[in-house]
Amino acid sequence: MKEGIAVAGTITVDEIKRISKYPNKSELTTIQNISRSIGGAVSNCSVSLAKIDHTIPIEIVTLIGDDEKGEFLKERLREYRNIDLNQVKMIGNTPFTDVIQDEFDHSRTFFTYRGNSSLFDENTINLKNLKSEILHIGYILLLESLDKEDSVFGTKMAKVLKEAQELGIKTSIDIVSENSSRYEQIVPPSLKYTNYCVINELEAGKSVGIDLRGSSGELIIQDIKKVLLKMKELGVKDWVVIHTPEGSFGFDGLNVYSIPSLLLDKKFIKGTVGAGDAYVSGVLYGALKGLDLPNSMKLGTAAAASSLFEEDSTSGIKCYEQLITMYEEFPKKDEIKL
């Protein structure tokens, strides 16, 4: 019997640099603080899940370089007894990301070295050896080999997801946010073989060609439901979820849900790195435990909010009981009616 969650794909070391304000081109700014943490979908989601529930089995599938950054990642991941590293392979150079954390507006800017991520391909995951009930893969648009075209399934990623479903494994995807026109070509093939698609508003909108942010940055509320329904039409089997700072929105094939974000005092927000992965982890944990979509979204909302209390991507994540209490007790933003 399969149990637990496998997290596959991108892993990095985050080199976090806190600055007072992001400079214009050719200007100078001062780095106020430097720290290092694990990063990428594999690190962020596996550790978030381990902190939410230390009893669930978690398998990770990724490539780590035989270098100092790779040793750092292994050392940190081995701190969690329920994380299985048996499908971690060592090759090439470990990817890393310079995360520039703006103290002025709490935004973050990423400069990524992809390293060995291009080597992660359809043969990296030994699907038949996976013991997990759910396989989460991230990120589409960042895993070059899986983004390549496949004559039968559209992309290599879609092929892997289809093979996983045929083995009785439910699938989940995440997408990287980038300023490009690649989404509509690369993302839809994978949606046909996805059980849970939990992504942000930029990724969702670009995947179906409908912008969800206006020119002034405002959320285009009237188009959110349209995007949810379109992504379900493209093949997502169970849940489509769009998370935003204002709130999150989900569709389970029957009902559309709007869940408000928690209202946090800005002075307590130390960083936004990994908030999206924390949200995904909460939703996937809910799915694993048989929660319905709205309650899974509430758990994801609390997980994302808790991650904001620390500079890195996972230190702030609380356990399941604390997250439930957090969502119930914290003030919330106004619910957005769709």
UniProtKB/TrEMBL annotation:
<feature type="domain" description="Carbohydrate kinase PfkB">
    <location>
        <begin position="10"/>
        <end position="314"/>
    </location>
</feature>
<dbReference type="Pfam" id="PF00294">
    <property type="entry name" value="PfkB"/>
</dbReference>
<keyword id="KW-0808">Transferase</keyword>
<dbReference type="GO" id="GO:0016301">
    <property type="term" value="F:kinase activity"/>
</dbReference>
<dbReference type="GO" id="GO:0005829">
    <property type="term" value="C:cytosol"/>
</dbReference>
<dbReference type="InterPro" id="IPR029056">
    <property type="entry name" value="Ribokinase-like"/>
</dbReference>
<protein>
    <submittedName>
        <fullName>Carbohydrate kinase</fullName>
    </submittedName>
</protein>
<dbReference type="InterPro" id="IPR011611">
    <property type="entry name" value="PfkB_dom"/>
</dbReference>
<keyword id="KW-0418">Kinase</keyword>
